[in-house]
Design a protein that fits this description.
By secondary structure, this protein is mainly β. Helices cover about 0% and strands about 45% of the residues. The protein contains no helices and 8 strands.
Length: about 80
């Protein structure tokens, strides 16, 4: 059994600063966590010890973009 969470139903995430961050409709995504410069990967997730290989990204209700390592998310609030 798994804790199946539909990424399109994520409403907010709790980060280590103790704040819940709202997620605009269906903008929450998970993917490899890479840092790029001018289209070239500078550091890819999993290439450097201590750099997580998976990250999360989303937009808030004001259109601001956020990204963080998946390990930075303490909790997820989602609709069923």
């Amino acid at each position: 059994m798994s804790l199946a969470i539909d990424v399109h139903k994520v409403e907010s995430v709790l980060l280590p600063d103790g704040k819940w961050y709202a997620i605009a409709d269906k903008s929450f995504k998970l993917d490899s966590y890479d840092f790029v410069e001018e289209g070239k990967t500078v550091v890819g997730g999993g290439q450097v010890q201590g750099v997580p290989s998976t990250g999360a990204t989303w937009k808030d209700n004001m259109g601001k973009r956020f990204a963080c390592p998946l390990t930075a998310i303490l909790a997820i609030r989602y609709s069923s």
